[in-house]
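The material for today's practical consists of a large collection of protein records. There is nothing in a record beyond a sequence line and a structure line. As an example, a complete record with its sequence and its C-alpha cells follows:
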Amino acid sequence: MPHLRNSAAVSILVIAKLDDQVEAINAALRDAGQAVHCHKVDKPADLEACFLKHKPLLIAVFENASKTNLGSAVATMAPVEPHVPIILITNDVSEESIAGAMTLGARDAVSLGNIVRLQTVALRELRACQNELSLRKLMNSASQFKHELHALKQVSVDAIADIQEGIIVNANPAWAELFGLPVDTDLTGLPIMDLCTPSDRPELKVALLACQRGKSTEAELRVNGVRTDGQDFPVAFKLESITHDGEKAVRVLVTPPPKQQLTPTGLIEKALQRDPVTGLFNQQHFIGVATERLQRAPSGGVRAFAFIRPDRFSQARTDLGLVGAETIISQFGQIVREFMQPGDIYGRIGGTLFAMLIERGTMEDAESWAERLRQTVAHTVFEYANRSTAITCSIGLCEVESTSVDIEKLLTESEAACSKSRQSGGNRTILSVSSGAAKKIRQDDNIWAPRIRSALMENRLRLEHQPVASLNNDIDGAFDTLVRMLDNEGNTILPSEFIPAAERTGLIKNIDRWVIGASLSFCASGKAKLVLVRISRDSLLDETLLIWLRAHIAEYAVETSRICFEISEELAVQHMRQTLDLANALRSSGFKFAIEHFGKAVNSAAVIGRIPMDYLKLDGSLMQGLHRNTEAQNKVREYARLAIEHGVYTIAERVQDANTMAVLWQLGVAFIQGNYVQSSEIVIEDTSQTSSTIRTLSIATSQQRKLETQLQ
C-alpha cells in the first residue's frame, strides 16, 4: 500500500449523517498507515466554513441516490479551492456510477464494502493534493524570485534589455532612459535594431545571433545608439546568453557613464511628479501620463484601469496612531509597486486612493493580477513602533475598450466598482458595470461556441423562407432567407440568440456558407425562382467567398440569377470599397445583389447611386405607423424614386398591416414582405441533395384576394 511522503496527520472533511461513517473512513486510512484527522460536516452548506477552519487535503461525501450532496459539495468548493479532491462514498459502485460521480466533479466513487480500493483511492488523491500544494509553493517561490529579480533590474543603474530574435522582450527603466525615453515607456516588442544607426545594425545582428547560439559570451560590442531626438551617441553593449521564458535569449547590458547632476530646477521638477510617501506618481502626473498612454493602442492583449482603496483605514489609524497611519500608506505603496510590470502606470491620487493603468494578455489575467494584489494586502501585517495592524483593500477594475475612452470615465467607473466592493464588506475585486457586461458576453460565448459548432457538425441548422409579394411590380417564387438552430431536444433557437456569439467567435462565416449551400439546394428543387441570402461582415471581407461560390454553384447546377446576396446598409457604409468589389464581382458572375435595412444612415440616398444593386430593402422601422407619419412617407417616396431611376427594385421589410401596404403602393414601392403577407416557415429540413425534404410556400388564396381588393 503506497503512503504519502509525509507521515504527519492530514485533515479530511467527511460529509455524513452518522458518526459511524466518519469513524469508518478514519479506521480505513489508519489501517493503511496514514494518520488523519476526520472532521464531520453535517450538510454541504457548512462545507466552506469547515474548509477554512481545518484546511483539508481530501473531502469524502457519503451520498444518497439523488447525489444532491455531491453536487452541492462540488459547487461549494469550486470558487473556494477546486484542487482539493472530492470522492463519493456510495453502496453502488459500478462503471456507470463512477462515471456519473466524476461527471458531477468527484475524482472517484468508492464503497465501504471494498476497503482496499477505498484506501488506494484515498491515498492516491491525498498524494495528488500534496503534490499540487508542493507545486504551488514551488511556483510561488519561482514567481517571487522572478519579481525580486525584476525589481532588482528596475532599480539597477545598468541599462538591461533581454532580446529574442532581435526583439526586446524585457527592458528596465534605465534602458529607456539611456535612449532618451520616459522611464515608464514599455519597450516590449521593439526591434533593438531601431535603437542603433543603420551602419551598425549588420554587426549587431551577427553578434546577437552568435551570442544566442552560445558561440560568443561575455562579448562587448561598441555601436552608435540613436536617441528619440535623432542624436547618435557611442554605447558599449555587453552581451550574455540567457534563457527567457524557457527560450534562448540574449541579455544586453550597458553601464552608462556618470550622469551629470540635475540642476536644482530639474530636481524639483522630478520630485514634483512623485508622491513623497509611496514614490508613485502623484495625481496630476499620473493623469497626464495615463492620458497620453491611452491615446496609443496597447502593444498586445488588453488594457485595464484599477481603482484601489484600503478598507477600514480609520481603524488601522487608531491601532498605529497618526504617524503610523502614514507608515501604512508607505508600506501599502510598496506592496503595490511590487506588482508593477513594465509599461504599467501607478499613482496615488489622493489620501488612501490609488489608481493603476495596466496591460495584460487578457482581462482574466488582469483580474488575476488584482486578486493576487488583494490577497497580498490581506495577508500582510503592517507595523509601526512595536504596534501592528492588518488591513484589506477593495479594487474596482474597468476594461479599457478603445483609445478614445476618457480617463475621467475610467476613474468614475472603476471608483464606482471599488465603492460597491466597500459597501459589500470590502476585501474583494469587482468589475465595473461595463466590464462585467463584457465578461458576461465572453462567458456566454464560451457556452455558445461549442453549441454552434455542434449544430453545424450535426446538421441542426434550419432555413425559414418568407415570401416576397408583388405590389407595384410582379414577382413570383421569391423568398427571403432566415436561419434557425435546433438544440439537442429539437427546440428552435432564434438567430438573435446565437448569431451575435457566432460573429464574436468567428463562426459566422461557417453559418453563412451553410445557409448558402442550403439555399442552393432549395433553388435546385425548382420551388423558388429567387432566394435572397444575407451574408455577414466576415463573408463580406472574405476574399475566398467567390472561389467557394463558383465551386458550389457548379455542384447544384443552379442558375446564378436565382440567388441574390444581401448585406445591411450599415455594413455597406462601413466597408464601402469591399462592398463595391463584392457587388461588382457577384453581378459579373450572374448573381443578384441587394442592400437591406436601408434608410437608417444619415445620408442613405447617396448609397443608391454608389453601389450597384438589383434590390433595395427598406428597413422595417420606416413601416411602423407609416400611414400617419408624413416624414417617413417622404423618405420612402424619395428612396423609391431614386431606386427606379437606377433600375433597382424596392422591397419593404416587416409590413404588418393593410394600411401600411396601401401607402407603400401609393409611394411606388415594388414589393413587400412581412407577417401581413405571410410569416416565415421552415422549408428545408435536410440540406443534403439526396434526401432533401422541401415544402413549397405560397400566399393563401383568400389573402391574395384581400390584397388585390385593397389595392384597387
